[in-house]
Design goal:
Strand order of the largest sheet of chain B: 2-1-8-6-7
CATH class of the largest domain in chain B: Mainly Beta
Distance between the termini of chain B: 56 Å
Oligomer: heterodimer
Order of helices and strands of chain B: HEEHHEEEEEE
Helix content of chain A: over 70%
Structural class of chain B: alpha+beta
Mean pLDDT of chain B: 89
Number of strands of chain A: 0
Largest sheet of chain B: 5 strands, mixed
Low-confidence stretches of chain A: none
Number of domains of chain A: 1
CATH topology of the largest domain in chain B: Ferric Hydroxamate Uptake Protein, Chain A, domain 1
Number of helices of chain A: 6
Shape of chain B: elongated
Order of helices and strands of chain A: HHHHHH
Largest interface: A-B, 17 and 14 residues
Number of helices of chain B: 3
Distance between the termini of chain A: 13 Å
Number of strands of chain B: 8
Chain lengths: 168, 131
């Protein structure tokens, strides 16, 4: 890994953390999914994967350690992996928006199943059911954010890379 | 752009329908009107074993407890999971080792007091348990 990659990963993960903090006042509306998808498409699996790991580790420094952090170490790198797989077959932003929507809708279910390992199913089922409205907001907002912002952000970053003579 | 606007509109509409469906199927099934319910409070270490009968129009257990707050000396604490019962009959649960366990008509409550509907004839049993 080159110094340029390390710097890029630091900037990308910082933008994820900043994006998350800015929207933390609005329940379940976030740009982390959107940014990770965009970063995977633009910078490739390896760099986006490392970005997701740095981002989750930064979360520990901000919020402290909890079992949810372990879930984050799975869910965000998995999004990068799924985007990288999807990228090989599709080019349309609709597919990425659909992936982001599915991610949002199943976020609560994933964490309920994951946390059931620690706390049992009697905790997981009410946890998931009571969080369904938040999952609906999460999935819907993810879909809208990716559909509206994916193309403009991709183009802006690509233009900036050309202007700054930054190759891939 | 028009296509995107239509697609977004459809997705938002589906989300609203899903929210409506959720409220209908999973929301608390509340009952309006006069209801007679029993509240039992057992705190073994303090030899407290009380039973109250209340007539109420409240729809959720949290509202009932708030309504009869002075009588049962109810105290609650807001947590990320919603309000939590921390004190009854003047006894406050030790946050390090105790909690008020809720049993509704003989079955363990699966949700907190803010999500428990008040139904006619229900028996709400609170007892101190250790964890």
């Amino acid at each position: 890994m080159r110094a340029r990659d390390i710097t890029l990963i630091a900037i990308l993960s910082a933008s994820l953390t900043a994006g998350k903090l800015v929207l933390s006042v609005v329940p379940n509306i976030e740009v982390v999914t959107f940014l990770l998808i965009t970063f995977t498409v633009l910078f490739g699996f390896k760099r986006a994967f490392m970005t997701s790991i740095v981002f989750v580790t930064t979360e520990i420094l901000i919020y402290g350690f909890g079992t949810w952090i372990l879930g984050y170490y799975i869910i965000w790198p998995m999004l990068v992996l799924l985007t990288a797989i999807l990228k090989k077959t599709v080019k349309s932003e609709y597919s990425y928006a659909a992936l982001a929507a599915i991610y949002g809708f199943t976020f609560g279910l994933f964490f309920a199943l994951f946390e059931s390992v620690f706390y049992g199913l009697s905790y997981a089922i009410p946890y998931w059911i009571s969080g369904i409205p938040f999952d609906i907001i999460h999935g819907t907002s993810n879909f809208v954010i990716v559909l509206v912002l994916f193309k403009p952000l991709t183009k802006t970053i690509q233009d900036a890379m050309v202007k700054l003579h930054l190759g891939k | 752009m028009n296509k995107k606007v239509i697609v977004i509109g459809l997705v938002v509409l589906l989300a609203v329908a899903a929210m409506f469906g959720y409220t209908k199927f999973f929301g608390p099934d509340t009952q309006k009107g006069a209801k007679e319910v029993t509240v039992e409070i057992v705190i073994e270490g303090q030899s407290i074993d009380k039973s109250y009968t209340f007539n109420t129009d409240t729809e959720l257990l949290m509202d009932l407890l708030t309504e009869v707050k002075d009588e049962i000396k109810f105290e609650s604490l807001d947590s990320s999971f919603g309000p939590m019962v921390v004190g009854l009959e003047g006894y406050t649960a030790n946050p390090a080792s105790e909690y008020f366990h809720i049993i509704i008509n003989g079955a363990d409550a699966m949700v907190g007091v803010k999500d428990i509907p008040v139904a006619d004839g229900d028996v709400y049993h609170f007892e101190i348990r250790n964890f």
